[in-house]
């Protein structure tokens, strides 16, 4: 068997931060890097830089100025049908098969500021996206190896946020969102690998706001970035390989998210 290492990172503009991706790849050697919020069209993606860092195989779903997801790999990528989660047709889903494993790279809408669908269409869009995820994963062939990664923009557990009670009415941790994520996991018989590797009683964050005056001091983070596997493939996960690379948040001109990595025996 060989080990397949998969990283997910909301890079918040791949052209601006390609150098940070290069540094991360050189230091940690992931086999597959799934990026969200690349903020460029397909032809504007810095493909040459990714080839230089040993990730020549690319699957890009770009969009002018906003959103966008991409998968970069050391190994060849096979095309697969991409699920239609976004009712507005935005570039938020990329899907491939690599080393016999289907990977879904997702960028779930953030949902705006008000957790009320009656006054906030962005929140309504987010809930629609999550509903479509639930329907898709319920209907999917449970025997087909699957890894779901990305910025899901939901911190589901009490210790996936810096202050559970303080954030219950804040978008990303409201009960309607966390319950939707729970339904998706149950419908698809999916496993949250972060909480296989790290007990649910421990704080675990992957995002720290740019608005925080000193994010290192107050550590007011949220776990918005996830790696899941379906039950058929989850036994291949190597728990000790799960890492949230918090140090990347302190790099020069960083994303507000950091890379999350997990590896599998395939």
UniProtKB/TrEMBL annotation:
Site (Important for catalytic activity): 225
InterPro entries from the UniProt entry: AP_endonuc_1, AP_endonuclease_F1_BS, Endo/exonu/phosph_ase_sf, Endo/exonuclease/phosphatase, ExoIII-like
Residues at the catalytic site: 107, 151 (proton donor/acceptor), 257 (proton acceptor)
Classification via Pfam families: Exo_endo_phos
Co-factor: note: Probably binds two magnesium or manganese ions per subunit.
Domain Endonuclease/exonuclease/phosphatase, residue spans: 7-257
Enzyme class: hydrolase
EC number: 3.1.11.2
Lineage top rank: taxon: Bacteria
UniProt entry keywords in alphabetical sequence: Hydrolase, Magnesium, Manganese, Metal-binding
Keyword match Repeat: no
Binding residue positions for Mg(2+): 10, 37, 151, 153, 256-257
SUPFAM superfamilies per the UniProt record, alphabetical: DNase I-like
Cofactor: Mg(2+); Mn(2+)
Entry's family note: Belongs to the DNA repair enzymes AP/ExoA family.
Stated name of the protein: Exodeoxyribonuclease III
Organism per entry: Candidatus Phycosocius bacilliformis
